[in-house]
Amino acid sequence: MMKKKILGILLSLSILSLAAGCSASKTEPEKAVSAGEEQAGTDVGEPENKGEPGQEEPVVEPKEADEKEEVTAEPENAQPENTQSGNASKIPLENGQPDENSTAIIYYEFKKDYALDYAEVSGTLEFKIPQLTMRSVEAGKINEDILEYFEEKLDDMDEMVEDDRDLWAEATLNIGYELTYLNDDKICLLLTGYEYNGDAAHGMPFRKPLIYNLENGERMEAEDLFAVSEDEFGRAFIAAFEKRMAESPDDYWTDAMDYVKEEASFDNEDFYLTENGVVFYFEPYVLAAYAYGYIEGEVSYDSLGLK
After folding, report:
1. C-alpha angle 16/17/19, rounded to 5°?
2. Confidence class of residue 169 from pLDDT cuts 50, 70 and 90?
3. Exposed, middle or buried, 41 (CB in 10 Å: 0-12/13-18/19+)?
4. Going by C-beta distance under 8 Å and a sequence separation of 6 or more, which residues neighbour residue 259?
5. Cβ contact 108:143 at 8 Å
6. How far apart are CA 133 and CA 100, in angstroms?
7. Average pLDDT of span 113-141
8. What region does 95 belong to: left with phi over 0, alpha with psi -120 to 50, or beta?
9. What is the mean pLDDT of the chain?
10. Sheet with 271-273, side-by-side order of all strands
11. Cα angle, residue 294 at apex, residues 146 and 232 outer, rounded to 5°
């Protein structure tokens, strides 16, 4: 009987011990999970500080709106290049036309009108600008020189009209060209036309010879062209006009020959080349009345020796 009581007590103690162990093992994982959840919540809730302790992040100030506009904005009056308002070229070369007499030339037309407050047009300017078609550095240099000459004439007209628009109300300037000579190393362009300042009974015919060396692109003068001394040049020049004036001496001023002798030097620029020889000329009024126009004297290349 006693043995049965002892066994019952021992069995009860074993059951209690087993229940306590199960309860302990069940509580530990719950604490672990709770701790893990608490750590994860800390990582999400607080931002990571990558800088040094106590060091502030640099602050980038935004640019002011005015400052940005000052750098990127363009002037209101900005103009494209190669226009009449005049950055690269005051004369745009557009729609070139082939010369009917030579494949070596193409020309460009340019026109400008000058208006008064009380009139639609107070003056006109018209150019026919020749340009060489040859593809070379030297030809390009010549073309630039020709264009610069026409730009200078445009500037002169602009300034004349702007100074006194009423005075130059009928101002006119027309310039074209003639190709008078071309060989392997030389070309002669004779610019021709008419100019009138609006303040005289009539205008004046216009001439300007442009003679170029095709081998270097430079303009040529008498000293560069003729294989004679300056004295020989002068004698040939005078002889040409003596012959011309002897045909009708009454047509010329009595002191006309004095003007001829003054121009008988290499400094003379009033001549152009042709296939037959050199043509020297004087402007109207110099040797005779206006009605006679240009007075010309021709000298053969045999007399001057073209280099």
Report:
1. 65
2. low
3. exposed
4. 282, 286, 287
5. no
6. 13
7. 86
8. left
9. 78
10. 271-273, 277-282, 295-300
11. 80
Residue 6 pLDDT > 90? no
Q: Where do we find the tokens 């205008």?
A: 203
pLDDT given at position 255? 96
Task: Give the integer Cα–Cα distance in Å for 162 and 272.
Answer: 34
User: Structure tokens of 76?
Assistant: 């209101």
Q: Is a pLDDT exceeding 60 seen at residue 84?
A: no
Residues in the chain: 307
The residue behind tokens 């502030």 is 56
Rounded CA-CA distance 94/109 in Å is 8
8 Å CB contact between 110 and 100: no
Residue bearing the bigger pLDDT, 113 or 59: 113
Give the neighbor-by-neighbor strand order of the sheet with 119-132.
Answer: 97-98, 105-116, 119-132, 171-182, 186-196, 204-213
Among 35-44, 161-170, 200-209, 215-224, name the one with the lowest average pLDDT.
35-44
| Integer Cα distance of 209 and 191 in angstroms | 6
Residue 30 has pLDDT above 70, yes or no: no
Q: In this predicted model, what pLDDT tens digit does every residue of 258-285 receive, in sequence order?
A: 999 999 999 999 999 999 999 999 999 9
Quote the pLDDT of residue 174. Answer: 96
Query: CA 42, 45, 48 angle in degrees (round to 5)?
Result: 85
Contacts for 113 with CB less than 8 Å, ≥ 6 apart:
121, 123, 124, 125
In whole angstroms, give the CA distance from residue 291 to residue 160.
27
Secondary-structure breakdown of the chain: helix, strand, coil percentages, each rounded to the nearest 5: 40, 25, 35
Distance CA 217, CA 230 (A): 24
pTM of the predicted model, to two decimals? 0.69
